[in-house]
């Protein structure tokens, strides 16, 4: 399968573009079982290198396939060790910068799905997200980056990395958010507390703090009807809000619906 998949990926990217039809064919021929090996992974990296006009569909497939390979297929499953971290950075780094936004999304997704990763990979990822937020331009999986300002997509990208499960209680202090002189300082809570106790801080700030594994969700003290209402206020429709409430409570959607109906009686 590796040779066929490699030839298919190379042919798809030969004109610098990978169409939705070609992505579908790659899924069918090379990733039908949801698994790829080292040769297929390298073929995807090579295709991404050759793709001059990546689309959000390509970014989605590239990230989905390679994050599964890096996190789940390479031992130890679920973790990123030093060797894998070094290999990943070596493959995607171009003189300290990433070659594409698909690679940036891959880096963030790996840290979102891994249980833990080396500190050097987390630090590298934070630097690349900062570069992308300040200078990036083009499509990600969830929207476009804008080099002229900081938009919602870029804020979401930063938040995803800060709150990635592979992080170790990370936090960030953002001064003058979305303004000309915006400054982002990241580190552990202890590091940030020590820095600002010594240096002080001026201006409007926002502090983003991760939640430790095992901490109770912020909504854990609410009834399910209150949780659903709160999630709807965040912009979710009723079905999505109920699904999220079920996930927070650790119950099935049918059980969550039963409780919701019971509370309304």
Describe the structure.
Helix 6 (101-113) packs across helix 7 and helix 7 packs antiparallel against helix 8 (152-162). Strand 5 and strand 6 (183-188) form a beta hairpin. The chain has a three-stranded antiparallel sheet with strand order 6-5-7. It has helices at 2-12, 20-30, 38-50, 56-73, 82-92, 101-113, 119-135, 152-162, 189-199, 224-233, 238-249, 253-264; strands at 93-94, 97-98, 138-139, 144-145, 170-175, 183-188, 205-209. The protein is mainly alpha-helical and 265 residues long. It has three domains: 2-166; 169-211; 224-264, no CATH class.
For the structure shown, list the relevant keywords:
265 residues; mainly alpha; three-stranded antiparallel β-sheet; 57% helix; globular
Considering DSSP H and I runs of 4 or more, what fraction of the residues is helical? Answer: 55-70%
- Number of separate structural domains: 3
Strand content: 5-15%
Poorly predicted ranges (pLDDT <50, ≥5 residues)?
212-221
Order of helices and strands: HHHHHEEHHEEHEEHEHHH
Strand order, sheet with most strands: 6-5-7
Secondary structure: elements and pairs:
Layout lengths: L1 H11 L7 H11 L7 H13 L5 H18 L8 H11 E2 L2 E2 L2 H13 L5 H17 L2 E2 L4 E2 L6 H11 L7 E6 L7 E6 H11 L5 E5 L14 H10 L4 H12 L3 H12 L1
Antiparallel strand pairs: 1-2, 3-4, 5-6, 5-7
């Amino acid at each position: 399968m590796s040779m066929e998949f490699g030839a298919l990926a190379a042919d798809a990217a030969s004109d610098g573009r990978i169409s939705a039809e070609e992505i579908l064919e790659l899924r069918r021929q090379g990733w039908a079982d949801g698994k790829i090996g080292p040769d297929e992974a390298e073929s995807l990296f090579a295709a991404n290198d050759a793709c001059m006009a990546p689309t959000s569909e390509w970014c989605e497939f590239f990230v989905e396939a390679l994050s599964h390979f890096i996190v789940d297929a390479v031992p130890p499953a679920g973790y990123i060790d030093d060797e894998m971290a070094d290999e990943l950075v070596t493959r995607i780094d171009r003189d300290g910068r990433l070659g594409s936004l698909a690679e940036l999304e891959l880096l963030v997704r790996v840290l979102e799905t891994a249980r833990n990763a080396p500190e050097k990979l987390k630090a590298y990822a934070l630097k690349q997200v900062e570069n992308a937020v300040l200078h990036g331009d083009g499509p990600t999986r969830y929207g476009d980056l804008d080099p002229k300002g900081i938009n919602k997509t870029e804020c979401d990208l930063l938040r995803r990395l800060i709150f990635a499960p592979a992080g170790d209680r990370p936090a960030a202090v953002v001064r003058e958010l979305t303004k000309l002189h915006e400054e982002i300082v990241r580190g552990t809570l202890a590091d940030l507390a020590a820095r600002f106790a010594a240096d002080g801080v001026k201006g409007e700030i926002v502090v983003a703090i991760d939640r430790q594994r095992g901490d109770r969700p912020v909504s854990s003290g609410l009834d399910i009807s209150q949780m659903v209402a709160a999630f709807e206020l965040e912009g979710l429709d009723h079905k999505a809000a109920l699904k999220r409430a079920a996930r927070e409570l650790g119950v099935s959607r049918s059980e969550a619906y039963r409780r919701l109906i019971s509370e309304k009686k």
